Structure formats: structure tokens, C-alpha cells
Amino acid sequence: MLLYLDDCFTQHDTGSHPENKARIQGVNRALRSAPWFGDCTTPTWDAATIAQLTRVHDATYVQQLQAWCEQNAGQIEADTVVSTGSWMAATRGAGAAIHAVHQVLHTPESRAFAAIRPPGHHALPDGPMGFCLLNNVAIAARYAIAQGLQRVMIVDWDVHHGNGTQDTFYADGQVAFFSIHRSPFYPGTGAEDETGTGRGLGFISNAPVHADITREKFFDTFDRKLEQLAARVQPELILVSAGFDAHPQDPVGGLCLEAPDFAVLTQKVLALADIYANGKIISLLEGGYHLQHLPECVTAHVQELVEA
Length: 308
Ligand SMILES: [Zn+2]
What we know:
By secondary structure, this protein is of the alpha/beta class.
């Protein structure tokens, strides 16, 4: 089990924004003090290269983002801010995702979790959105395809729809995307009839759920729709956009999932990875903004990956 964690992610300084450095400080503390931490491998890795980023993002946007960070630009989008440390943090986050794919494809390691920030799944090919600068999970998926894989599946259980990831792969046909998310809610996309187009038709699966859904119904919906997509796609690798803002007390999101429920979701995805992907699963931190509950939820998730 690979665990990517580094204090460098505190250098994406967002002040009192809900997506702030205290999130990752709490997660890192919790992971480092977990009884199974010593069983994990903690790699060192490099920042993603421009060539790796531009498999997903427009070169002009990547250049603009770097310039914004150098200028300490502050607010660059309705909900998104950058500081001078943001370029390093964002490219190191994407780099962790890429390194994890490389290790899982080319070494005996089959599972990884990356405790990274800023999150990525709202980031669009041509711009930042919703706290996100670079779409880490999309960059990881494109890297996996570049390594020769034919089919990759992304599972996104963040409470918000992963619109940036969906946009990236809507007509792709090699990278499938499943999202379960609160609806109606930010960012407003992710209806059930958004299923892809062209070669990507049938490779996008959305499960919008109402704010008052019960845990039982949430798990039923998750199981049914995810199993359908996995059977259709037969993924060789599963990537997880692991957001933890579906916790009832999350200040930005909020839905029905307590910390132990993220262990249940993890078990379900692990079972599919065993069936289709030789157990290969890489999970990347997305949202989750409650400073006490986020570390508990992450720990419940990672523990399942470690003990699998
Ligand atoms: Zn979210």
C-alpha cells in the first residue's frame, strides 16, 4: 500500500477559505498516527511536468495558472484562490497521482492513496473551478492510458458532481466516469441522462441523489449503478475521486455518510477492483471540509485500502 503525504501541500495558502491548509495538516496527523502507518510505503515523487498536465489541460491555461501563482493573484475564479505556493502544491499533487499510477502499473504495489490539495475534480480543461486548479484524477487517467491501458474507470463519491472530470472524458471512450452526488447542488451538472457522447456514449454514469437520502438508499444506488458501469467497461485500473464532504456536518457539502460509511464504500470499490482490475486502485483526496471529521473519514477509507 502506497501512501502519498507531504507537508508541502500546506504551501497552497488560501487564508480562511474552507479549502485551507488545516485540512491536510489534520489528515497527515491522523494518517501518521494510525496503527497501520508503518505497514505503508511512503514514496518521494516529483511534480507533474507540463507535458503531463497538457494531456488534460490547455497549454494556455497551464501557462496562465503558473503566472497567476507567481503573481500571488488571490482570487482567480468565483470560489478559487491562489498564492505563490499554489503552483508547487498543485503540480506536486498531480505528480503524486501520476507516480501512484506508475507504481501500481509497473511494480507489485496495487493500491495507493494520495493526501493532496488543492482538490481537482471541478478543474476544467481550460480553467480553474470550485477550489480546483488541476484535475488530478483526469491527469492520472490520461497517464495510465499513455502507459498502454485500454480502459480506466473513475469513481467519484465527493458530494459535488465532478464536472471537470466528466467534461474531460465525455467523448473519450477509454476512461469511464461514475459520480454519485447531491442534487440539486453545486455545480448543477451530473443529471442521470448525461451518459457521454460519440465513442464515450455509455462511459459516463451519474447518480444524482436528494439531500435527504438515507444511507441504505445511497448504498443501493451506489452499488447498482457502479456495478453496471464496471461490467460494461471492464476497467484495468480504478481511480477514486475520494471526497469526504458527504459527511452530515460538512460545512460546504453535507449528506448522509458518517466516517464508517466511507469504509463501506471503499470495500465496494475494492471488490470491483478485484473482479476487473487485478486489485489495482488509486485514491486521490478531493473535498471534505470539516476539520475534525475529515481526518476520521480519510482514516476509515485508507484503513480499508491498507487491510485489503
Ligand atoms: Zn466536494
